[in-house]
Write a structure and sequence with these properties.
Chain B: Belongs to the CcmH/CycL/Ccl2/NrfF family. Chain B: Possible subunit of a heme lyase. Chain B: One of its GO terms (cellular component) is plasma membrane. The complex is a heterodimer of chains A (655) and B (156). Chain A has three domains: 165 residues, no CATH class; 197 residues, no CATH class; 102 residues. Chain A is 64% helix and 11% strand. With 655 residues, chain A is α+β, with helices and mostly antiparallel strands. Chain B folds into two domains: 94 residues, Orthogonal Bundle (Helicase, Ruva Protein, domain 3); 50 residues, no CATH class. In chain B, helix 2 crosses helix 3 and helix 3 packs across helix 4. Classes of the chains: A alpha+beta (655), B mainly alpha (156). At the A-B interface, helix 13, helix 14, strand 1, strand 7 and strand 9 of A face helix 1 and helix 5 of B.
């Protein structure tokens, strides 16, 4: 019964979406206030109906209702509750429902918090947003209905893929979708502005918080996924340049570019058409990502079981929204002339270079991801593009980005004195080179990657600190002023420092990773990187829905016992799949990572041990980046009515 | 997709995923650390053919293990790194290379980024020069709506 209500709510939401996509748009065109006003309650209704539908599906998973096909395929009565719930989005149909739930949530938020938007713009934004949800409601109802019943319900389900039964991965998709779908707001604002034919500083100020929020969620989602890969896949890799990973990384890069270019629109009313284009492309990359994951055109480690019909449907959605928006862009972009004037050496132009680097980097990822497809279609070559290519083709752009970042972020607006900024940065250059030299001196392997990464990281972190300190003025109580700086200043410094920390982590992990593979007998000690290990016992443990072989590894240094690690090998009998659960001793400068393998014929166990230098810095840096985004979001300038604020700002010198 | 075909797909996935062993096993490791290091380097660039997007060094599949052993066999027999890679590519095609060659159409792939960067820089410099030479003072124009509202406010 609840299932049918959920199904019904979904159909109703679909109908509401049709109304909301059409009526306000006509209303805005004809200036009929009644028609425009339809958008707000419709957006709320759409969200509530979708939420009800999602709740019904969750109910079916929680109560293990095996008359539902989806529950049978992805759940099991013995599964822990957390994974029964995360099982809702651990499959194609359920995750699409989560996708539209978030889409309608963003639409509703725009209706609830968009009080200061001009009525026509608001009506158009909500109509465009609803057009997107309309397309996806149709997709769910016609190709991927989660509410299908089985005539003969089995006694129990087939369990969720055990790899997905993990706390890190339980929350990875919701964050990722919040990010992907959040970019739909930027898209809706861009299309609405194109229809209005007007883009100004106020528009940029409305768009930026949505983009920032989406970017923060994407950052967290990607970091969670990468962290999961690190501890779950059994050898500590954190990024594989897999098509699906790239699908989440491209919108992240474009959203980062959009965040920065919107600042120029806000401050200087320049870069308008470029910003609009980025807003369209950012969501376009989200849709491409959805297409890649669900169509199966590119083989990837974590694509859902998929069929071509769905791929074609998403391709139509993609073609409709991108084609429509880009056509509109081509017709209207020329009308948006820039107003502000700024010098070639200025913060504005630094932001232009930021955009070039991020956009070209995203393009490289895009081209590399789709190249196997293009090569097969046009040149009849079946080939692969993997990590070695991306590491070579992508990294240079990030190195340049990191090298320019502190300098660019300290240039003043409009017309900057590059020489003065450069001079103030000299101590940082010295510091960064010292860090790199130190790293070079103490490393055992002669690699350039580690020292260069540390150099860039130290440079960016100290640059962010100096930038923040420089904002406190020249005299007086600078410390007190430091904590009264606007959230946006803190956000900028914290996010940039976070990027530096991630750089250090990636370089350290890739340059100085140590590995040891061996057969270990119980009780026999071995050594790696100055640490002593003893496999003291191997036990069989029964988990809720798995059987585990758990090794007990004593970790010591210089004869002193540090800790005990419990690497596991699990077998999930229902899904008939084994997983590895690495045991990790997390440290500030290194992780110690132990994996237990198979028993050997002549006794003993295969054991793989790694020392992963600076590993945690990768995810710590990502979380700090996201935190920076939150600081910036908390800036009161976003919350104050932009129009009223703008009038008050006149006469205040540009920052 | 019917339940049966889903089941079949799941069974197929199990077959390809069913790990016989986890990545490089102790019995595969060569006694000569220099050769082993080279073997690892080569393995990291070769794709596991039955997996979705993994190199043979990290893969759990039986076929990846066979390939790893093949690489080591060739190395022990005195092949150079290039000879080993060529040997594998001869048998499995260029699909096996995770780092595509620079030959033929692949030039496009390798040059796409740098060319795009050059175009972008060129356009950006043009734009920036235009911005720095532009006339100041193009004041904000009000829309009709705003003009109306302004008039209404002024009238009060």
């Amino acid at each position: 019964m609840i299932t049918e209500l959920g199904h019904f709510a979904l159909i109703l939401a679909f109908l509401v979406a049709i109304v909301q996509a059409i009526v306000p748009l006509i209303g805005a065109h004809k200036r009929w206030h009644g028609w425009m006003a339809v958008a707000e309650p419709a957006a709320t209704a759409q969200f509530l109906l979708t939420a009800a539908s999602f709740a019904a599906l969750t109910h079916a998973f929680v109560t293990s209702d095996f008359s539902l096909r989806l529950v049978v395929l992805n759940s099991h009565s013995a599964k822990p509750m957390l994974y029964k719930i995360s099982g809702v989005w651990g499959n194609h149909e359920g995750s699409m429902l989560l996708w539209v739930l978030i889409l309608t949530l963003f639409g509703a938020c725009a209706a609830w918090f968009g009080g200061n938007l001009p009525p026509t713009l608001k009506a158009r934004v909500l109509a465009v947003q609803s057009a997107i949800s309309l397309a996806f409601f149709a997709f769910i109802l016609f190709t991927s209905n989660p509410f299908l019943r089985l005539a003969m319900p089995p006694f129990d389900g087939q369990d969720l893929n055990p790899l997905l039964q993990d706390p890190g991965l339980a929350f990875h998709p919701p964050f990722l979708y919040l990010g992907y779908v959040g970019l739909s707001m930027a898209f809706s604002f861009a299309v609405a502005a194109l229809i209005e034919g007007r883009v100004d500083a106020a528009w940029a100020r409305w768009v930026r918080p949505w983009t920032l929020a989406a970017w923060v969620f994407l950052t967290i989602g990607i970091a969670l996924g990468s962290w999961w890969a690190y501890y779950e896949l059994g050898w500590g890799g954190f990024w594989f340049w897999d098509p699906v990973e790239n699908a989440s990384f491209m919108p992240w890069l474009v959203a980062a570019a959009l965040l920065h270019s919107a600042i120029v629109v806000e401050k200087r009313e320049a870069l308008k058409s470029w910003t609009i284009l980025l807003a369209i492309l950012a969501f376009g990359f989200s849709l491409i990502g959805t297409f890649i994951v669900r169509s199966g055109v590119l083989t990837s480690v974590h694509a859902f079981a998929n069929d071509p019909e769905r791929g074609v449907f998403i391709l139509f959605i993609l073609a409709f929204f991108m084609g429509g928006a880009l056509t509109l862009f081509a017709a209207r972009a020329s009308a948006m002339e820039a107003k502000g004037v700024f010098g070639v050496v200025s913060r504005e132009s630094a932001l232009v270079f930021n955009n070039i680097l991020l956009a070209v980097a995203a393009f490289v990822v895009f081209f590399g991801t789709l190249w196997p497809l293009m090569a097969e279609m046009f040149f009849d070559r079946k080939l692969s593009v993997g990590a070695p290519f991306f590491n070579m083709a992508f990294t240079p752009f990030m190195v340049v980005l990191g090298a320019l970042l502190p300098f660019g972020s300290m240039l003043s607006w409009k017309r900057a004195n590059g020489g003065r900024v450069a001079k103030s940065l000299v101590p940082l250059v010295v510091l960064a080179i010292a860090v790199a030299a130190l790293a070079y001196a103490i490393q055992t392997e002669r690699t350039a990657l580690g020292p260069i990464g540390l150099l860039l990281g130290a440079w960016m972190i100290s640059g962010a600190a100096l930038d923040l300190w420089g904002r406190t003025g020249r005299s007086g109580n600078r410390f007190a002023r430091l904590f009264r700086l606007p959230g946006a200043d803190w956000g900028k410094a914290v996010a940039h420092a976070g990027l530096g920390i991630t750089f250090i982590g990636i370089a350290g992990l890739m340059a100085w990773d140590q590995e040891d593979i061996r057969v270990v007998n119980v009780g026999e000690p071995f050594e790696l990187g100055g640490y002593q290990f003893v496999l003291s016992d191997v036990q069989q443990v029964q988990g809720p829905n798995y059987i585990s072989t758990t090794g007990v590894v004593e970790l010591g240094m210089n004869g002193r016992q540090l800790t005990t690690l419990y690497p596991e090998k699990r077998v999930y009998p229902v899904a008939q799949m084994p997983t590895t659960e690495a045991a990790i001793d997390n440290g500030f400068l290194r992780d110690i990572y132990v994996v237990i393998g198979d028993p050997q014929a002549d006794g003993g166990w295969a054991v793989r041990t790694y020392i992963k230098p600076l590993a945690n810095w990768i995810w710590a840096g990502s979380i700090i980046m996201a935190l920076g985004g939150c600081f910036s979001l908390a800036d009161r300038r976003f919350r104050v009515a932009a129009g009223a604020r703008k009038a008050a700002m006149k006469g205040v010198p540009a920052e | 997709m019917s339940l049966r075909s889903t089941l079949a797909a799941a069974a197929l996935a199990l077959l390809t995923l069913a790990p016989v062993a986890y990545a490089v096993q102790p019995d595969e490791v060569l006694s000569d650390p220099v050769l082993e290091e080279r073997a690892r380097g080569i393995s990291a660039g070769l794709r596991c053919l039955v997996c979705r997007n993994e190199n043979i060094d990290d893969s759990h599949a039986e076929l990846a293990r066979d390939l790893r052993l093949l690489v080591r066999e060739r190395l022990v027999e005195g092949d150079t790194d290039e000879e080993v890679v060529d040997y594998v590519v001869d048998r499995f095609g260029e699909y096996v290379l995770l780092k595509p060659t620079t030959g033929g159409a692949n030039m496009l792939l390798w040059l796409a980024g740098p060319i795009m960067a050059l175009i972008a820089l060129f356009l950006a410099f043009g734009y920036l020069r235009g911005r720095s030479n532009a006339k100041t003072g193009a004041e904000d124009q009000l829309t009709e709506d705003e003009q109306e509202r302004l008039n209404a406010i002024l009238k009060d």
